[in-house]
Design goal:
globular, alpha+beta, 4-stranded antiparallel beta sheet, 11 strands, 3-stranded antiparallel beta sheet, disordered N terminus
């Protein structure tokens, strides 16, 4: 009986690291910072200067991105994806340096209105910790690449990124 209890205890002890490892999942990213998870909303979108050139930023100054996996104005980012890449929601407003004619919106599967620019649904990135940060630029997560958007509606890429993606949006 003592031998059986010892074996059961040993099996349980060995199972703990396996269960912990399984709980860590097989995703490609860690948890988003709690302070920035969830949908983003806010004022007028404007053009701002960055190390990548002129880019779109939301009313709170956070960089806006497009997802290469989106089809037209339909978002392909929901669930865990939307926690890392919160959709930019609300009523579209053009601020300084923007072409108001390129602003629009689309209705997400959950019924919220997501802002679009030149037909691209817009997102912020939970890893950007301050206004103007561009940490999501060129990341390949949730099945496709993420790009900063320029005031003309095109994606912003460095010359190195253009060479590695063939100059496309990464579709």
């Amino acid at each position: 009986m003592k031998s059986i209890k010892r074996r059961v205890g040993l099996v349980a002890l060995l199972a703990v690291p396996i269960l912990v490892a399984a709980g860590c999942g097989g995703g490609s990213a860690s948890s988003p910072p709690a302070s920035t998870a969830g949908a983003s909303a806010g004022g007028a979108i404007t053009a701002a200067s960055s190390s990548l050139g002129k880019i779109l930023v939301g009313g709170n100054g956070m960089t806006l991105y497009m997802f290469a996996r989106d089809q037209g104005d339909k978002s392909a980012c929901s669930g865990a994806c939307a926690k890392f890449w919160p959709p930019y929601t609300g009523t579209p407003k053009a601020g300084s340096g923007l072409q108001a004619s390129l602003l629009g919106s689309t209705v997400r599967a959950d019924g919220t209105k997501q802002v679009t620019y030149d037909g691209h649904p817009l997102y912020t990135y939970s890893g950007d910790s301050a206004p103007g940060a561009t940490g999501g630029q060129g990341l390949n997560t949730f099945g496709a690449l993420w790009w900063v958007v320029a005031p003309d509606g095109k994606v912003v890429m460095t010359s190195a990124q253009q060479g590695s993606s063939g100059g496309s949006y990464g579709y």
